[in-house]
Amino acid sequence: MCGIAGVWRKRDPIGSGDLSDIVRMMQALAHRGPDDHGNWNNARLALGHRRLTIIDPSRAAREPMLTASGDGVLCYNGEVYNFRMLRKTLEAEGLTFRTVSDTEVVLQALHHWGPQKAVPLFDGMFSFAYFDARDGALWLARDRLGIKPMSIAMTGERVLFASEDKAILACHGFPRRMDTRELTLRLAWQSRDSSYSVFDGVERLPPAGLWKITGDGIEKRRFWHVLDILDIARIAGDNTSDTGHAATLQTLLEESVELHCIADTSLATACSGGVDSGLITALAKHFRPELHGYVVDPKLGHSEARDAERTGRRVGVGLRRVSLDRDRFFELWPRAVWHLETDGWHASHAALLALAEQCRADGVKVLLTGEGSDELFGGYRWQASTMRLWRQSWLQRLFRSKARRDRKFAELRRTPFRNSIGRGSPTDRSMALRALSPELNFLQTKLFDRLEGVVPLSDRAFLASCLYDLYSHLQDLLHRHDRLGMAASVELRVPFLENKLIDFAIHLPRRQKYRDGTSKWLLKKVAGGHLPRENIRAAKNGFEMSAAFSAGTQGLLRGGLLRDAMKWSSSELEDLIDMARSHETSRLRLVGMEMLLRLYIGGETTGGLTEALHAEAGSET
């Protein structure tokens, strides 16, 4: 688990300025890899690497890593959990290894099989830059659901790439400008964080992106997408019993958790009172008997600590509470925004950073979490509400005509536009957002079409909503996980997002995900053998944080950077401040965005913003 940085020259050879930029980029990424660093360059390419040692801590596993022949180079961030199986296959084909790391297996697989064959075989979370000197091609790749990041910028003479935007911004002469389109979409609550940058000129490699860069330009591909691999016959023709599905899911979960427990370092779990993290904790205990867990314990509002400790007692895992009061929140919120490279739109961002920092203080480098379960197994309220909407007879009559459906679908489907601060009618706002963000907003339509053959229509709409959330809501969560875990040099692993588990879940029929008013029906059936009944039956609340944590901070908006960027008038700004005073979600998003601009454009410090938050909150009391 690491940070990577690179400079590719389109024409002229790599020079001293490029090598200096690599140093700057690596300094900006130091938090991602405090254990070691290395660099490599040839005439066209310069690479830098920051290392957090998880598997094979020996110096032989340092990066950038070269093949024995020297004509293959890898700069890699992540974990490929099936590396031992891949290694056996490569050894059977005559290859030899000098380390026990997954890095060398990834390098040898890419060099021996070629990226287009090798990458789909990788089971894990990863992003990497691989250079093949035999044909002069640079390959950039990201795992199938975008767990690990890759940012890219294309200038007149260079291609810059790194694990985080801030590394690209550190390059000499690269302009620090905000993309106002992206600011608008985030303020309208669009899910953008993992795949789109707020900085002008910086883009993100998409999930499952596999880009080939040569002297002729960039060839952009993807090696996996739900639209491409979905087998409708498996869903529509499913006749497996509930017991059979539960047995399969139990086995897949055990296998995935075992893979995710592979580490030559200490490992723990994030254990809330919910089903997802609780189930991961219960299964991980079998493979790591010494395991302990963490739960955030906010000192304002509701705390999940008591529910989490009920799970801990049931599965025999001790839990450590991570306390979070308002002073600590004000300290962490600006730092979370700095690492996220977007607004800290949820109070739980500060809580996750507090948890990661406690892990690091305790010597824990790897933390297992339960993210991905709700998207795969149907855990969100809005997924169920989509199904209820589509059961209405008038909507079914409309959709008997495909031509009419194509004209009307966008107005009738569930829009991701929620809690918007925009003005005008909902239809007007929704249409405006579709024009701004067509790549996401039309995906659900495509998914609905792809599920043709699934009946009734309400089931089809429900499954389309679940699959859509893999590319919308989940992307925000994964971005948060990577940035805030690595801010404290802690690797967060997500066992639910293992290849075979993903394939199993996306091909489940609706009745295995939502039945009799129960979300995540099948997963809860499996969890019944591991977790307390009270925790399984409890209503899903997400990670709720009291509005009192951020209360009174809306006056920070008078600082003017966000107002200037969005061209709000004085009266519009005061209206927004009034709204933020009473509406927590808007307050977090607006104040978070103001802090983002102050940090990256205004040059302010996180410590200075902590003081400003205290001052604003104090003036409101």
Characterize this entry briefly.
Its EC number is 6.3.5.4. This protein has 621 residues and is an alpha+beta fold. 47% of the residues lie in helices and 16% in strands.
Could you characterize what this model shows?
By secondary structure, this protein is α+β, with helices and mostly antiparallel strands. The protein is 47% helix and 16% strand. A 6-stranded antiparallel beta sheet has the order 2-3-1-9-8-10. Strands 4-5-6-7-11-12 form a 6-stranded antiparallel beta sheet, covered by helices on one side. α20 packs across α21 (457-471). The two termini are 44 Å apart. Belongs to the asparagine synthetase family. This is asparagine synthase (glutamine-hydrolyzing). GO terms for molecular function: asparagine synthase (glutamine-hydrolyzing) activity.
